[in-house]
Design a protein that fits this description.
Helices cover 31% and strands 29% of the residues. It has 49 residues and is an alpha+beta fold.
Length: 49
C-alpha cells in the first residue's frame, strides 16, 4: 500500500462549485503552505482561524 503525503478535502457550494484543498500530512507546515490552504478554502483569514 502506498503512503499518501497529503489529505484531500472537498466541499461543494450551494451553486454546485466544488472546492478541493490538499493539506500536507506533516507535524509542521510552512507559512506559505498555510496561506495556500486558506486561499484554497475560499474563506478569509479571520473565518479560517
Amino acid at each position: 500500500m502506498r503512503s499518501r503525503k497529503h489529505i484531500t478535502f472537498k466541499k461543494k457550494d450551494p451553486d454546485g462549485r466544488v472546492w478541493t484543498t490538499w493539506v500536507p500530512k506533516h507535524k509542521e507546515v510552512t507559512v506559505f503552505v498555510l496561506k495556500s490552504i486558506i486561499r484554497q478554502s475560499g474563506k478569509s483569514r479571520e473565518e479560517f482561524y
